[in-house]
């Protein structure tokens, strides 16, 4: 990476606005972002994980190419450019990883004249061990990490709905599928990775250990869609302020009501997270405080 380049990592949380952040940076004149949000370089160390990521990229390529064939002019050209970007990503992921040089070169290749930043926004990086997160700090002369916190129950329920959409058969109502998944998470401790992504306390402890304070920014999802927050993020990333579409949602899940009793059970399950974040940050967004009185 060049001395002028900033490499940013968006490391979560899952279902906490990372897709919106990626779209914002894609449209920012100071940034040159990859063709897809999640590169999954640091969390595909096993052959099984890598194979799954490669298959997903191949599926994306086929879908985008199919859509491109039905477009004309600039819209078609942009889609074919994205396909080529995904192919280059697949090639990089398959390259030897002894010194991370292929990753560095891949990220450097995104810089265009005048671009100041590129990024890798992969929420599952929050689950990496502290040692690997520390390695990521040295991937460029300037690195920045952003971690977005969302109300724990809201984040978990949004995550559950996303999984339910993938599991539900065509035409099947999402509510019973999502409810069953959340019941299994709460009462049977199934899907440990889903709960691990809700462990803000453990994740922040790792980040504190691995990443210098000046390289890390914690943002609350509930505060993110405001001009002053976007200005703050731009300053942290060393890029100019660029107006954002603050009301535009990206990958917003289908609205599915969370049953009150199950919501209370989820709130109790995650109570330690609420208390730990209150101790760490003091005042929390109002959305986080709405149920405090119900769990004592």
From TrEMBL:
Gene3D superfamilies per record: P-loop containing nucleotide triphosphate hydrolases (3.40.50.300)
PANTHER family: BIFUNCTIONAL HEPARAN SULFATE N-DEACETYLASE_N-SULFOTRANSFERASE (PTHR10605:SF56), HEPARAN SULFATE SULFOTRANSFERASE (PTHR10605)
Name of the protein in its database record: Sulfotransferase
InterPro entries according to UniProt: NST/OST, P-loop_NTPase
A GO molecular function held by the record: sulfotransferase activity
Keywords: Transferase
Pfam families, sorted: Sulfotransfer_3
């Amino acid at each position: 990476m060049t001395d002028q380049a900033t490499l940013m990592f968006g490391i979560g949380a899952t279902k906490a606005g990372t897709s919106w952040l990626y779209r914002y940076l894609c449209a920012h004149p100071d940034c040159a972002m990859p063709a897809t949000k999640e590169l999954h370089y640091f969390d595909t160390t096993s052959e099984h994980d890598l194979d799954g990521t490669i298959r997903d990229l191949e599926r994306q390529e086929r879908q985008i190419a199919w859509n491109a064939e039905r477009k004309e002019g600039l819209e078609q050209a942009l889609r074919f450019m994205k396909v080529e970007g995904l192919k280059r990503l697949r090639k990089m992921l398959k390259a030897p990883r002894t010194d991370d040089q292929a990753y560095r070169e891949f990220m450097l290749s995104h810089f265009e004249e005048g671009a100041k930043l590129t990024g890798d926004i992969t929420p599952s990086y929050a689950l990496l061990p502290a040692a690997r997160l520390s390695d990521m700090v040295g991937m460029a002369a300037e690195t920045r990490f952003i971690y977005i916190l969302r109300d724990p129950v809201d984040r978990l329920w949004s995550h559950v709905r996303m999984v339910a959409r993938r599991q539900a058969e065509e035409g099947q109502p999402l509510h019973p599928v999502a409810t069953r998944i959340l019941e299994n998470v709460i009462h049977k401790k199934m899907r440990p990775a889903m709960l691990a992504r809700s462990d803000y306390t453990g994740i922040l402890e790792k980040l504190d250990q691995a990443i210098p304070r000046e390289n890390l920014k914690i943002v609350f999802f509930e505060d993110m869609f405001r001009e002053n927050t976007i200005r703050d993020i731009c300053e942290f990333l060393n890029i100019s302020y660029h107006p954002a579409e603050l009301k535009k949602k990206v990958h917003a899940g289908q609205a599915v009501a969370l049953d009150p009793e199950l919501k209370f059970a989820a709130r109790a399950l995650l109570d330690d997270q609420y208390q730990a974040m209150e101790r760490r940050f003091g005042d929390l967004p109002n959305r986080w405080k709405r149920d405090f009185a119900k769990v004592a």
